[in-house]
Write a structure and sequence with these properties.
Blueprint lengths: L4 H12 L8 H4 L12 E3 L4 E8 L2 E8 L4
Antiparallel strand pairs: 1-2, 2-3
């Protein structure tokens, strides 16, 4: 498992700009129960989204600013 900073940049820009998922972006980044959207923790007055995970010795965390939709 690995990624580069460039790959993560492309991924987050694709999400933020609606290139990857344009219809569900508002729902994905809308804080619901305890600040959790669809797969993302929303914080900072709805300005940042965070997702983390781990498996068998690997861990990650992705934090990005959210563009208002």
């Amino acid at each position: 498992m690995y990624s580069t900073a460039e790959d993560l940049y492309k991924w987050t820009e694709g999400l933020r700009n609606g290139v990857l998922l344009n219809k569900s972006m508002t729902s994905m980044f809308t804080a619901r129960h305890r600040g959790y959207g669809y797969g993302w923790f929303i914080s900072g007055d709805l300005e940042t989204a965070r997702h983390s995970g781990d498996i068998n010795g690997f861990s990650n965390e992705l934090l990005m600013t959210i563009k208002r939709f």
